[in-house]
């Protein structure tokens, strides 16, 4: 084929019928062939662009979660060793940090497993049959389940942070230590209530590949509770901002100072409570296509992967209380 450049790849396809004969063209005895890969110079261009986009997202994910992982591990170590920081508020912060650590670990492990699973794939029927039943397939599915559980834990520890902050500001609760056990159940236990049913539904109705594809109703088993948690967090966030606004006005702070204080408090609360998730709850994957979906995923993945790093910096490394205690201990 003279129009094919040296080194180019492309296949001509024929179809074998159930009778063991080649499929023929309609109203003809000529064998049907699909040679669009060879005739169209840009046949693979869209696929190549898609692969490149996935590679960018994968690298961005690994870099963001790796930085979050290392910074959060250091933050947990610091807050664990400094006994003067041991209180209900910081215990909740530490559990949130740990949920971020587990989430980052699960994401990185999933990426490694997917890279191994989709490298050197079998090229014959016997190989595929053994591959789908192999250990790597089970490990791949197990990593997906673990990822969904730890993502759920992360969302619900963000919810716990919001609930605790609301409790401090709007109620007079004296037995806060007793609340910690309830918070632990909410943060680590609640995700089991929807991850287990999702796992069972996947095994029964969509037991394919590494469980990366999602049937809408099955995916909503997980998406529903997470969406509800994000909405509750956002409502609490608005209530807290309204309270801060009224207090700043009551203290008769200068307009520029009051605006600065409110903006600073808002920016500090956003990563702690994961308020940015409300945007991506409204703009879901199904509502956008093409380059818009890619842009949405880049922004969402950047905020999600680097969120742990921001939380570690704001609530540990740059925290006045932590720095004061650290200086005193040293």
Task: Summarize the structure in words.
The chain has 330 residues and is mainly alpha-helical. It folds into two domains: 1-43, no CATH class; 51-329, Up-down Bundle (Rhopdopsin 7-helix transmembrane proteins). It contains twelve helices and no strands. It has helices at 36-39, 45-81, 88-117, 125-132, 135-170, 176-189, 192-205, 216-250, 255-273, 277-282, 290-317, 320-329. α2 packs antiparallel against α3, α5 (135-170) packs antiparallel against α6 and α5 packs parallel to α8. The longest helix has 37 residues, at 45-81. It is elongated and about 90 Å long. 23% of the residues are buried. Its main location: membrane. Residues 57-319 form the G-protein coupled receptors family 2 profile domain. It is a multi-pass membrane protein. This is G-protein coupled receptors family 2 profile 2 domain-containing protein. It is found in: Membrane.
